[in-house]
Specification:
By secondary structure, this protein is mostly helical. It is built from seven helices and no strands. Helix 3 packs across helix 4.
Length: 185
């Protein structure tokens, strides 16, 4: 398993409540695959040299992050590339920075990423025919649940009250009345 996927898996474990205590005891670490001997973990100096430097222009970096929040990390799949530390996400942020420096608009960059990686790369899919159920589905399910609830409530109201005969009332009263304690004489 690539190192990027291991990082994302560990983040998921923390988000799922396995917490730092479980991670530090090693119980949760045993469930995750580790890097093989053929792919050792990078040293601290190698990691530091691979860190993505901020742009010299803070306004450019803000625009990079704005576009990066609209795109999904293809490695982690549940994070934006702005929040992911996967190598691919870092490369995509560099590519966004380069395209913004070349004068492309955020819409052009997102269109380029969609053309290259498919509609899945959008963190918030566009509203069109193929994604209509994705957007309307929750509301349709909510309406169906409310209609079902209204139907059940209406059926319960229509059930007529059962009239009890005098014998049934006496039997119910005898069952519900506590017995009197025996008197000692």
């Amino acid at each position: 398993m690539p190192l990027d996927e291991q990082v994302c898996n560990r983040r998921r474990m923390v988000r799922l409540g396995m917490g730092w205590a479980a991670l530090s005891t090693g119980a949760a670490w045993a469930q995750l695959p580790t890097a093989s001997a053929s792919a050792p973990l990078p040293s601290a100096s190698a990691s530091a040299s691979q860190a993505t430097p901020l742009a010299s222009d803070p306004a450019l970096e803000a625009r990079v992050m704005e576009v990066a929040h609209e795109l999904r990390c293809l490695v982690c799949q549940n994070e934006t590339i702005a929040g992911s530390q996967a190598e691919l996400a870092q490369d995509l942020r560099k590519q966004i920075r380069l395209k913004l420096q070349q004068g492309q608009t955020p819409a052009e960059i997102i269109d380029f990423m969609v053309a290259r990686y498919g509609e899945f790369v959008r963190y918030r899919p566009a509203l069109k025919g193929t994604t209509l159920m994705l957007w309307a589905g929750p509301f349709v399910l909510l309406l169906a649940a409310l209609a079902g609830l209204a139907f059940v409530i209406q059926r319960r109201r229509q059930v007529p009250a059962v009239a009890l005969s005098d014998a049934q009332r006496a039997q119910a009263k005898a069952l519900l009345t506590p017995p009197s304690p025996p008197t000692s004489s």
